[in-house]
Specification:
By secondary structure, the protein is an alpha+beta fold. The chain has 2 domains: 3-96 and 203-210, RimP-like superfamily, N-terminal (GMP Synthetase, Chain A, domain 3); 103-167, SH3 type barrels, CATH 2.30.30.180. Helix content is 32%, strand content 31%. The chain is built from 5 helices and 9 strands, in the order H-H-E-E-H-E-H-E-E-E-E-E-H-E. The chain has helices at 3-7, 17-32, 63-80, 103-108, 171-192; strands spanning 35-43, 49-56, 88-92, 113-122, 125-135, 139-144, 154-158, 162-167, 206-210. The strands form 2 sheets. Strands 7-6-5-4-8 form a 5-stranded antiparallel β-sheet. A 4-stranded mixed β-sheet has the order 1-2-3-9, covered by helices on one side. Helix 3 (63-80) links the parallel strand 2 and strand 3. Helix 2 crosses helix 3. The two termini are 28 Å apart.
């Protein structure tokens, strides 16, 4: 992955506060080793847990990838030391019901159901549930799951108004996600000149260590 390719598809949904500071530290490290950042989240789970969600450009993320990312970002976090207390580092894949953080994510998962929350009121609401109909240059068209009386069946939400979007787990999503993952893994094996075999990794992987 080149830095140029990554910069051309920057995240449109980003963190704030300490999470944003951590994201600035780990993002260049991830780019350098061929990964892209999905999300950073510091929580009080198990004392204090730093979750770094990442993936390769093709959307895959194996257990070995999680371990590689963990080994790469740990020294950078030690040097900058953005977290004052002891914490657990958890590196994971986005999972099937993943957050959508880039314009390309919305395009990739067009046709699937999402839950969306906006930072400002859009069409008299800040929360939406519906199907992605179209991912445009500046906004995404959502077909409401259950439009209330008097509401338009579809709504256009500007990307810069979106605070959070996550896919809703459905049978169709599971089938599509597993199919995309298998194709991506086979393509990766071809690029590396490895023999093809069935993908054996789970849909969501993670590795954890104590800092």
């Amino acid at each position: 992955m080149t830095a140029t390719a990554s910069e051309g598809d920057e995240r449109i949904i980003r963190e704030s506060g300490i999470d944003a500071r951590i994201a600035l530290i780990v993002q260049p490290v991830l780019r350098a080793i061929g990964f892209r950042l999905v999300r950073v989240h510091l929580s009080g789970q198990n004392g204090l847990t730093l979750q770094i969600m990442a993936e390769r450009e093709d959307g895959t993320m194996t257990v070995e990838d999680c371990e590689e990312v963990s080994r790469a970002v740990s020294p950078a976090l030690d040097v900058d030391d953005p977290i004052e207390k002891a914490y657990h580092l958890e590196v994971s894949s986005p999972g099937i019901d993943r957050p959508l953080v880039r314009k390309s994510d919305f395009a990739t998962w067009t046709g699937h159901l999402v839950k969306m929350e906006t930072s400002i009121i859009v069409a008299d609401r800040k929360r939406f549930k519906g199907k992605i109909v179209e991912a445009g240059e500046n906004d995404v068209l959502i077909e409401r799951d259950k439009a209330a009386y008097g509401e338009e069946p579809t709504v256009r939400v500007p990307y810069d108004a979106i605070a959070e979007t996550r896919l809703i787990l459905t049978d169709d999503l599971i089938r599509d996600a597993l199919s995309k993952d298998n194709r991506a893994r086979k393509e990766a094996k071809k690029r590396r000149g490895e023999p093809e075999d069935e993908a054996t990794e789970g849909a969501e992987n993670e590795t954890e260590q104590e800092m």
